[in-house]
Amino acid sequence: MLLFLVLCPIAAAILILIGAPARFTALVSAILNFIVGLVLFLEFDRSATGFQFVSSTVVSTDWGIHFAFGVDGLNLLMLSLATIVTVAAIWFTGNIGNYERGFYASLLFISAGAIGAFASIDLFFFYAFHELALIPTFLLIGIWGTGNRSRAAWKITIYLTVGSFILLIGLIMLYQSLPAAARSFDFRELQSVVARNGIADATQRHIYLLLLIGFGVLISLFPFHSWAPEAYASAPAPAAMLHAGVLKKFGLYGLLRLAAPLLPDGAHYWTGLLVVLLLGNIIYIGLVTIAQRRLDWMLGYSSVMHMGYIFLGIASANAVGNTGAATLIFAHGLSIALLFAIAGQIRERTGTLSFDDLGGLAKVMPFAGLTFGFAAFAAIGLPGLANFASEIMIFFGAFRHGWEMQRFHLFQVATVLALWGVVISTVYMLRAYRATFMGTMPERWEKVADLSRSLRIPAAILIAALLAVGFFPQMVVNIVTPAIRTYFTASK
Amino acid sequence: MISLPAPHLEIDVLVLGIAILLFETFAARVDKKIFAYVGILGLTLVLIASFFLAPNSLEQTSAFWSFYTADGLAIFFKRFELITTIVVLAMMIDYAPVMRGATDRFGSNLGEFFSLPLLTCAGLMYLVSAIDFIFIFVSLELVTISFFVLVSFSRKDAVALEAGVKYLILGGVSAAFLVYGITWIFGVTGETNLQRITTAFASGNIDIQAATFGAVLIVVGLGFKIAAVPFQIWVPDVYQGAPTPVTAFLSVGSKAAGFVVLIRVLKPFLMLPNMQRLLVLLALLTVIYGNLAALPQNNLKRLLGYSSVAHAGYLLIAVLCLDGPAMTFYLVAYLLMTLLSFAVLIVVSQQNGDEISGFNGLGKRQPLLAFAMVIAMVSLAGLPFTAGFFGKFFIFAAAIAQKQFLLVAVGIVTVACGFYYYLKVIRAMYWPAAGQPSVQNEIITISPLSRLIMVALMVATIVLGVYPQPILNALKH
Question: What is the ipTM of this complex?
Fold first, then answer.
């Protein structure tokens, strides 16, 4: 089943390149994947521990590399996110004049890369699948982007290359820190070997730092963030949805998956640094976001800023905080995808996203206004929407961690400062909403049309998921917590 | 079951080459392309025969086997060189129209153009088997001299002549360094056989300084062959001036054999003090120079020339860690992606020249070529699911295992440089920079043979990018 999830978009992309009708094939494969993802979610055995639906093929016996897939609660949630956003992104794709096949194939490759990275339980393919998305992103921004697209395409590509090669070095060091006979890239093997032998403290510190920088670049951790707003502002809306909503979460997922169970001491050692950096994300980038004069740049920066909360959850190193982080990954992925989708629709209709040119669009685009409102409120963290539930867990987790680490009150301070981040995000989201949808409308937008009927379906799917998790957070928490709890019991 | 001794492979190739040369002289009226097809067919047969080799244990005692070995590495690289030559011959067929115009007024010496690669191939096959300095030198000369001719083959062309002269002079100088180094080593140990030199070094009764001097000279001599910095000056001009198939041959076949010799020679030499430090320095200079110099290039042949210098740097990392499998895998990946990019270049350049701007809009004009080029560039850059990534992965793993962290750190930066200039080609094909002519509308035709070869190279690049074990296994015998 997992193999199908991974191979379906790749097969569809190849079919499209060969000559199948582009939009139809892409949409069918995305919906198939969505259904399979849903089935997976329902079939998943919530009481069992460890990975389920495992399939494994040996690729290299010398190196212990396996083409292996499996799910536990943590990546089940990531896979659901990926399949939902893929459907929405492909559905929201408008008319593509130039290289239409290439556009849909690139989207599908990004989706396959993200799904493959989330579903892999082998470190090697976990890394490799993420890289599958690199060239499609480069092409999507370069060929179909807007604004200074060449610059944005180069910037994101070079940044992500450096980040992922630093990450690769970290992963190789992790692999080589195990005793020679027991080396493997399989998560399960890794976990059991580390549980038996452990990794020396000094080694853990080196590896964790490399992983933090490597993943940090991919996640746009302050100060490695500058590629993100530029790329998302230039990228066509579906690409921004997939990249900001799903692919960027790869790094966070990687930290959740690797840091706590394999490198607890390394993570502990660098907590101070991480907290300072994530406050940079929340406060500094938050203020930068307020200063933006264009909707697309504002959204790009806001997506960078929200990474700070997820990092706070990860840094809190307990089950509550990490569960909150995992849930926020899911919630943020949905809300940012929705925001980029609506921004893309506005750009398609008006040709501009500058706040000075927009205004009063709620009159002509009531449904878009409503949807944008939902997504913006979700991003702020209004109760009843998914982000609220996750942020609460993160704050509780982080605050408690401060007590657990004696005399380490940085966490209390950080939590309080991070709470002010909510105010900051309220300011910029509401200002953006006002500048775009409220106020007086320039006359030239009189003829702008609302979202077409068919586009309301993917928007509704995203909103429904946000509301469902917002009202019934237990639905996902029950799945994620057992997986994460094993990490913290195993390491202590 | 039929089986034949390993040295027969080279003899067969030599006989084939000489036979084609003779036929060419007496059969002036035949379409010369037929010789290339015969060459491809013959080499394919030899390639098949290489899988039915007799175990060579009986002959180990004879004097021949003190300078010739048929170990796993040698057999593997004999196949490697055979495959390279086959692909190069196929490229030459595509390239023949250009050569007809560029050679002398009769345009009749294409037969030599097709038969010389066979002689080179025999030299390369000897080279990978050589375990004695004298034999190394002799086979190296066989390779180099046939390359002297091949490089300057289009002799009406001033650029080609310049390339030929440069290659001739620097090739001669490097050979002189090599011979001088060999004499020093012989003076110190009284041996030319690598095995016995290793024993002599290990015994400790040698003049270390004299041995180091000799070793450095030999590394310099070989440094020319593999184009390590600072012995790379000839690369861009020769790569640009030589006929494109010859460039491909030079950058794959000759470089691979050079690395096999280097790793064999370094096994004893790395016992000398400071030798590893020298090689680290060489590797650092090579990756940095190769990658930085490639950044501003606008001519694809020059770009590939500098990129081959860069790859020599990564390979040096594997060699100085004495990691044979990593080096071998990287060379295999390098063969696939370099030959693929040259194959595309040959087809495109006949209409649009060697500049990167000639690739503008290729995505529209000929999607297959554009896609092949994407695979080649992505693999050269080192993205997962291509052979190039596993190559870099193994090399970085080897460097980390040896705690060469400086090399690793520099490696990350240079890999990022690499992404820039390789993706520049992809960008030209799909979205040319502003101000450049966007789409040239001529249709480009591809012959069935080169279509077959391109698809085969693409498939191999991707398959090895997912499943590298066959190459690792092939070395174990």
Answer: 0.89
Q: Is A236 a member of any domain? A: yes
Number of A–B residue contacts, CB under 8 Å = 83
* Out of B408, B412, B431, closest to residue A143 by CB: B431
Restricting to A residues 394-433, those with a Cβ less than 8 Å away from any Cβ of B are: none
**Is A295 inside a domain boundary?**
yes
Same domain? A283 vs A249: no
Q: Which chain A residues touch B384 with a CB distance below 8 Å?
A: 127-129, 131-132
Cβ separation B416–A150 shorter than 8 A = no
The 10s digit of each residue's pLDDT in A268-303 is 888 888 988 999 999 999 999 999 999 999 999 999
Give the pLDDT mean for B97-118. 73
Residue at A209 is within a domain:
yes
* Nearest residue on chain A to B403, alpha-carbon basis: A173
Residue to test with chain A: of B383, B403, B429, B455, most A Cβ within 10 A: B383
Count other Cβ atoms within 10 Å, centred on residue A413: 12
Tokens of B451: 């279509």
Residue pair B106/B1 in contact (Cβ under 8 Å)? The answer is no
In a domain, B198, yes or no: no
Total of domains in chain B: 1
Cα B339 from Cα A243, distance rounded (Å): 34
Which tops the pLDDT comparison, B106 or A374? Answer: A374
- Interface test with chain A among B392, B402, B423, B471, by most A beta carbons within 10 Å: B423
B414: left (phi over 0), alpha (psi -120 to 50) or beta: alpha
Residues of chain A with confidence (pLDDT) below 70: 402-408, 489-492
DSSP state for residue A284 in the 8-state scheme: I
**Does the CB of B455 have a partner CB in chain A at under 8 Å?**
no
Q: Is residue B442 part of a domain?
A: yes
Per-residue pLDDT tens digits for A324-359:
999 999 999 999 999 999 999 998 888 888 888 888
Domain range holding B475?
296-477
Residue-wise pLDDT for A1-26, tens only, equals 888 999 999 999 999 988 888 889 99
**CA nearest B333: which of B53, B80, B146?**
B80
**Above pLDDT 70, what percent of chain B?**
93
Identify whether the C-beta of residue A303 lies closer than 8 Å to the C-beta of residue A375.
no
- Give residue A119's domain range: 1-257
Q: Which of A186-190, B133-137, B410-414 has the lowest mean pLDDT?
A: A186-190
Return the residue matching tokens 């590399």: A65
**Are A23 and A133 contained in the same domain?**
yes
In a domain, B315, yes or no: yes
